[in-house]
Amino acid sequence: MNGNDGLLKLLEVLNRLAIPDMLVGSHSSNFYGIPRSTKDADLVLEFEGGELLNLGGHLPEGLSFESQSFFEMVTATRKGLLNSEGTDFVIELFHLSSDPFDQVRFGRKVVNFSSNVLS
């Protein structure tokens, strides 16, 4: 599985579990701006405390959580890393902060992101 395949499968899982998400970073700029090569994907997730742990039990084959979560300096929240086995591709999962700007930005996300963007 390549990184984009893993990202698409993860987005399907998030939809099935009804965990609100927003694709940010290079993958979103590839769609809306200037394409660039990258070895990661960034997602902002809105979840309660234990939901991220629950996500681990639903990950598709080929994706696995990094054993340690990380502190995100910019948003002062935690983030998790998913590895796409057999590749250098990483998916960063950022917890939506309570910052008013972040909340407004998340509220303006495109809800029906087309999976053909990543293919």
Report on the architecture of this protein.
With 119 residues, the chain is α+β, with helices and mostly antiparallel strands. It has one domain (3-112): Beta Polymerase, domain 2 (2-Layer Sandwich), CATH 3.30.460. Helix content is 29%, strand content 25%. It is built from 4 helices and 6 strands, in the order H-E-H-E-H-E-E-E-E-H. The protein has helices at residues 3-16, 26-32, 51-56, 100-107, and strands at 21-24, 40-45, 63-65, 70-72, 77-84, 90-95. Strands 1, 2, 3, 4, 5 and 6 form a 6-stranded mixed sheet that branches. The longest helix has 14 residues, at 3-16. The protein is globular. The model has no long low-confidence stretch (mean pLDDT 81).
Number of strands: 6
- What name does CATH use for the topology? Beta Polymerase, domain 2
Number of domains: 1
Shape: globular
Features:
six-stranded mixed beta sheet; 29% helix; alpha+beta; Beta Polymerase, domain 2; 119 residues
